[in-house]
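From the pipeline queue, job 12 of 40. The input is one protein chain; the requested action is below.

Action: predict structure.
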Amino acid sequence: MKIAFSKPLSVLLIMVSIIHSADYVLVPILPILLSMDKNLKPSQIGFIIGVGALSFQIGSIIGGIISDKIGRKMVLFTGSIIEIISLIGYALSNSYAYFIIFEIMNGIGGGVFPPTIKASIAETANGSNTTAFSLRGMAANLGVAVGGLIPLLVPNLTFSIFFFISACLYGILLIVIIFLPKTNPRSKKDKISVNQYKEILKNKAFLLLNFIALLVWAVYAQLSILLPLRVSEIFKNVKLVGSIWTITSFIVVLLQTYISTHYIKKHSYANCLMLGTLSMGCGLLIIGYSYSYLILLLSAIVFIIGEMLIAPSIDSCTTECADDKILGAYFSIANIIYGIGSAIGSYFSGKIIDIYGIKNITPWYIFFITTLIIIIIIFFVKKLTYKTKNPML
């Protein structure tokens, strides 16, 4: 674990924690704030969140590609400034139109971080990709836990204060970025050509990985949709979701290193994806039988174990598939696949719940059977590529 103490990686992990803390001050409660404090209609709130998700993907593409050309540090610095401006603007606004404008800025600013930071981590990992990305997962969940505690512990904060707190955290991020060594500067002789980007579409291993990732992320999206719906239906108290998120985040911090060392490093990426998908499927099935807080917490823990297997595996495999000169572009595409998979998964889970209802056991078996089908697909992909150099093996 010496990798954890290298200066560049340590700074990047601190940044990951700060970003997730800043985001999760708002993410769980933003719809509630816009509804109760600003009297927006559900359709308006949905449009704002949808615009934010779309602009996040745009920011991801821009951030990853530009960071390959001018270096990671400048892109991260610019993203932080955009986030601060958007959050302060949000805090001072009362107009639906302004909320849309600042949500677009917020999405673009936030979108530059995932591909840029992941590319930076891959560059500083010195071959220990699994360990590095496992540490990233731990740092992210630590940030989620800390950020999620603020609305729980201080429930009477005003609308503006939540955004100012998030903006202050991004201000701290700006200071931390100063300590990040300059990464990936490009000389004129080392100019990136358009043909290098075209090669991404010819990279069969990467395309295959993202086909599998699309399916896996569609399953991963279910927890954030279905768990709150189940909690609100059974307990009529959405705040309980925040406590479950905080507990599971701390569990990731405690267990991620163990899982990475004792399983991910000893098995193929395909096996990790299959086991992780099965774990998520089991977690979803348990939600369907949950009528107490402890069982709901158990379902979230079982589900999140799947995330601990899947996220480092996909990020590590992306690094192995990628051209080192355009790592940011590869992670931009991987992040877009994550967004598309999440959108597809959220849409279909919502439709299934509309048809059968949140208390009916049928949806939960549909979700579980779907995960089994995805596992079978991964298994056959592994068999079909057994004799190739595909890094999924």
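Job complete. Residues 327-356 form the longest helix (30 residues).
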